[in-house]
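Postdoc handover notes: sequence design on the structure in folder B. Input tokens:
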């Protein structure tokens, strides 16, 4: 009887671990929408050291984000205390957005795409509406 209960418990544990693992992978690779501050990755990395990275990033200027050295680092969105880096399509969409926007700072955007860890394959990047602001 003990062997049966031990085998049953081990099977349950392994089943739960497999279920949790597949749920995490599915959620991580699903289409997601994130609202935050558009920033170049070079400056974004510096903002992550601040107490409130999203608030600090809001003061980052369009002029800096479009400077050659910063633009070459690629783009990302800072949401809360997290920086999510863009793929090549996201970088192209970010450059287009920066060329068209009249805003000098507080470049709040909503990004949609498929997330993989700290990166996102961007399918859409638009200015965040006032209802999206925190």
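Designed sequence:
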């Amino acid at each position: 009887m003990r062997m049966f209960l031990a085998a049953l418990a081990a099977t349950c544990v392994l089943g739960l671990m497999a279920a949790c693992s597949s749920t995490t992978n599915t959620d991580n690779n699903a289409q997601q929408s994130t609202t935050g501050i558009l920033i170049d990755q070079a400056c974004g990395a510096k903002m992550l050291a601040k107490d409130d990275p999203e608030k600090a990033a809001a003061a980052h200027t369009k002029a800096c984000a479009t400077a050659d050295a910063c633009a070459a680092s690629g783009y990302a969105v800072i949401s809360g205390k997290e920086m999510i880096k863009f793929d090549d399509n996201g970088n192209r969409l970010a450059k287009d957005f920066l060329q068209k926007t009249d805003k000098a700072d507080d470049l709040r955007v909503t990004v949609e795409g498929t997330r993989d860890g700290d990166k996102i394959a961007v399918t859409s990047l638009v200015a965040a509406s006032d209802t999206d602001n925190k």
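Context for whoever picks this up: The chain has one domain: 31-132. Don't rerun without checking with the PI first.
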